[in-house]
């Protein structure tokens, strides 16, 4: 069995309550950090751990903390990004509803490290029931002296606020999230200034993902160096993977970074293989925005090496033959899945979720959706395939925030690896629009 | 500032809740309470009429337009009257892989309405939404705070019958 850092106790009955969580060793890391360490020492452990942002960007958390400006007399804020909305990703949802105190404990340690006395957990609005679970956990922790004024008699004060969103994928982008937290539309801000200098209420702010923060208890209890021994290379520690699609056992799994894609997909400890009687056609490894790969390229790199579940291995080969770990949204497609239909679906998602601020994204996502819709419905022309690639290139890199890239990559990669399937839809409209029809041309299934 | 502030008012319990929410933020940052307060308002009235939004603006000491622009940006706020139960059905890729489109077709047929419509008896409004972060348990829909997961036609029958009682 692989080592578990976040989910070791997740199935203990009653783990959502303070008492049970405490009995499993919960909050000892808060005691250790607040009573025996300086904030700088806590930051140092985060740096040593090498833990990288688990929301998708993969930026080292300790280094991000190091950028926080500390002008005299100005409050600093920690904001937890719990706006999990990337299609294929549901790990933070699972973690927060099952073991809320792990996040609360991580928030206390991280806020202490950053010198924040008021911290926020911004939860996507659809998860109002999770908001209530977190608020309950906060009440319990407060009653036990782990939150509020003079925590554990150390003189450190911290108030935690859980903030629900209103339904908008874009608020997962950190500056859009801050706008939303200020009670505004979720329009991403131009950078610089970065949140570390001017964030919430124009004050220095760190925004971290739920899973990133949840790692802090283990890191403080065991040391950053121990954490860095888990995983592979610069992909240290464990990662929660949300597994969905055509597999035998969908769900959230904690892996040690570096396990092979083959093992993750086929082992009974994890996905349990592609559903019975079917074969792997394609896979999205890191949430809907990362490039989709055909079966042979997700199992092995272009050099024939085993593909591993790590930041580096998944991106091996660049976008020509590789993809990204992203948020760990692992979506599996068997031979019954239509790539054109799925690409249209994802494209509709990004069109719907574009905030409308930047023209390339606002207009481009709509054009891509419209073109994909006509190809899928038998009205495409051969010119459309190259037109899609052209539009995707004009969106990518030309917007304030990464939503433009996120919208461009699924389309560009689907055409890169499954062009024949798009062409078939155009040349065989009658066949392709029959209910349940799927391209049966040559492709390598695994 | 508001045209009819006396026509709408939070219940005493909700007003207390709203004041507790406003107190969470630093002095002068009460606009931060807007999204959570709109959820409370929607809980009370079911949807956000312009009277309700004006009332919220007055409570938070902000301009009505600041409320309108937020309420119209975020998908969870209903700007038109809705039925007793709003079914928010996930239409995104991973749920579709699990047969989400077929179950959706069945649900539409069963209710006799399409996306954005309300049944004649006013019981159900159907809304299509994007990913609800429950992809491993798809197909999924949500009614208020509750998630209904691993949907099948049979489960849809049970849920609708249960909520129709």
Automatic annotation (TrEMBL), chain A:
Return one Gene Ontology term, BP aspect: cellular respiration
Q: Please write the reaction equations for the catalytic activity of this protein.
A: a quinone + NADH + 5 H(+)(in) = a quinol + NAD(+) + 4 H(+)(out)
What Enzyme Commission number(s) apply to this enzyme? Answer: 7.1.1.-
This chain's function reads: NDH-1 shuttles electrons from NADH, via FMN and iron-sulfur (Fe-S) centers, to quinones in the respiratory chain.
Q: Which PANTHER family match?
A: NADH DEHYDROGENASE [UBIQUINONE] FLAVOPROTEIN 1, MITOCHONDRIAL, NADH-UBIQUINONE OXIDOREDUCTASE FLAVOPROTEIN 1 NDUFV1
- What is a GO molecular function of this protein? NADH dehydrogenase (ubiquinone) activity
Quote the InterPro entries the UniProt record gives: ComplexI_51kDa_subunit, NADH-UbQ_OxRdtase_51kDa_CS, NADH-UbQ_OxRdtase_suF, Nuo51_FMN-bd, Nuo51_FMN-bd_sf, Nuop51_4Fe4S-bd, Nuop51_4Fe4S-bd_sf, SLBB_dom
Query: Where would I find the NADH-ubiquinone oxidoreductase 51kDa subunit iron-sulphur binding domain in this sequence?
Result: 340-385
Which family would the database say this protein is a member of?
Answer: Belongs to the complex I 51 kDa subunit family.
Record's protein name: NADH-quinone oxidoreductase subunit F
| Cofactor(s) it depends on | [4Fe-4S] cluster; FMN
Q: Which PROSITE patterns match?
A: COMPLEX1_51K_2
What EC class is this?
translocase
**Key words of the record:** 4Fe-4S, Flavoprotein, FMN, Iron, Iron-sulfur, Metal-binding, NAD, Oxidoreductase, Quinone, Translocase
Query: What top-level branch of life does the organism fall under?
Result: Bacteria
UniProt keyword Metal-binding, yes or no: yes
From TrEMBL, chain B:
What keywords were assigned to this record? 2Fe-2S, Iron, Iron-sulfur, Metal-binding
Q: Does the keyword DNA-binding apply?
A: no
| MF GO annotations | 2 iron, 2 sulfur cluster binding; metal ion binding; NADH dehydrogenase activity
Q: Which domain of life is it from?
A: Bacteria
The record's InterPro entries line, in alphabetical order, gives: NuoE-like, NuoE_dom, NuoE_N, Thioredoxin-like_sf
Cofactors needed by this protein, per the record, are:
[2Fe-2S] cluster
Q: Does the keyword Iron-sulfur apply?
A: yes
Q: How is the cofactor bound?
A: Binds 1 [2Fe-2S] cluster.
| Residues involved in [2Fe-2S] cluster binding | 90, 95, 131, 135
What the entry lists under Pfam families is as follows: 2Fe-2S_thioredx
Similarity-based family:
Belongs to the complex I 24 kDa subunit family.
Protein's UniProt name: NAD(P)H-dependent oxidoreductase subunit E
């Amino acid at each position: 069995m692989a080592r578990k850092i976040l989910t070791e106790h997740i199935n203990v009955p009653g783990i959502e309550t303070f008492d049970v969580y405490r009995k499993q060793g919960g909050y000892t890391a808060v005691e250790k950090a607040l009573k025996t360490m300086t904030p700088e020492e806590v930051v140092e452990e985060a740096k040593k751990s090498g833990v990288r942002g688990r929301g998708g960007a993969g930026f080292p958390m300790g280094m991000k903390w190091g950028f926080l400006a500390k002008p005299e007399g100005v409050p600093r804020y920690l904001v937890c990004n719990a706006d999990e909305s990337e299609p294929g990703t549901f790990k933070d949802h699972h973690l927060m509803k099952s073991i809320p105190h792990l996040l609360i404990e991580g928030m206390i340690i991280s806020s202490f490290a950053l010198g924040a006395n008021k911290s926020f957990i911004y939860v996507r609005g659809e998860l109002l029931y999770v908001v209530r679970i977190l608020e309950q956990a906060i009440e319990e922790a407060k009653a036990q002296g782990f939150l509020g004024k003079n925590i554990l008699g150390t003189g450190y004060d911290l108030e935690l606020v859980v903030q629900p969103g209103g339904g908008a994928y874009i608020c997962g982008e950190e500056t859009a999230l801050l706008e939303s937290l200020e009670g505004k539309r979720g329009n991403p801000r131009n950078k610089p200034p970065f949140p570390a200098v001017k964030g919430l209420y124009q004050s220095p702010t760190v925004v971290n993902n739920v899973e990133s923060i949840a790692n802090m208890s283990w890191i403080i209890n065991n040391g950053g160096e121990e954490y860095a021994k888990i995983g592979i290379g610069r992909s240290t520690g464990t990662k929660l993977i949300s597994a969905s699609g055509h597999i035998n056992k969908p769900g959230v799994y904690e892996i040690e970074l570096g396990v092979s894609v083959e093992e993750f997909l086929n082992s009974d400890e994890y996905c349990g293989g592609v559903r019975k009687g079917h074969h792997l056609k394609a896979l999205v490894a890191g949430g809907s925005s990362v490039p989709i790969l055909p079966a042979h390229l997700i199992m092995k790199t272009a050099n024939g090496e085993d593909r591993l579940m790590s930041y580096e291995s998944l991106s091996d080969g660049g976008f020509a033959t590789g993809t990204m770990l992203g948020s760990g949204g692992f979506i599996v497609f068997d031979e019954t899945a239509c790539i054109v239909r799925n690409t249209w679906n994802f494209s509709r998602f990004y069109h719907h979720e574009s905030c409308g601020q930047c023209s390339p994204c606002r207009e481009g996502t709509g054009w891509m959706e419209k073109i994909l819709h006509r190809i899928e419905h038998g009205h495409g022309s051969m010119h459309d395939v190259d037109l899609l690639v052209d539009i995707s290139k004009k969106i990518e890199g030309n917007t304030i925030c990464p939503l433009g890239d996120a919208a461009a990559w699924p389309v560009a990669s689907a055409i890169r690896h499954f062009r024949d399937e798009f062409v078939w839809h155009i040349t065989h409209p009658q066949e392709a629009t029959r209910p349940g029809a799927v391209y049966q041309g040559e492709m390598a299934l695994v | 500032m508001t045209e009819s502030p006396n026509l709408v008012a939070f219940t005493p319990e909700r007003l207390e809740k709203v004041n507790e929410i406003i107190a969470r933020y630093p002095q002068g940052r009460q606009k931060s309470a807007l999204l959570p307060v709109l959820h409370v308002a929607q809980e009370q009235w079911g949807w956000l009429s312009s009277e309700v939004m004006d009332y919220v603006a007055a409570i938070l000491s902000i301009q009505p337009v600041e409320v309108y622009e937020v309420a119209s940006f975020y998908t969870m706020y209903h700007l038109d009257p809705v039925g007793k139960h709003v079914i928010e059905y996930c239409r995104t890729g991973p749920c579709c892989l699990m047969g989400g489109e077929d179950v959706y077709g069945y649900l539409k047929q069963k209710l006799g309405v399409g996306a954005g419509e309300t049944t004649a008896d006013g019981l159900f409004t159907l809304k299509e939404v994007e990913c609800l972060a429950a992809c491993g348990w798809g197909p999924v829909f949500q009614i208020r705070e509750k998630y209904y997961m691993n949907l099948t036609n049979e489960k849809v029958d049970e849920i609708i019958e249960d909520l129709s009682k």
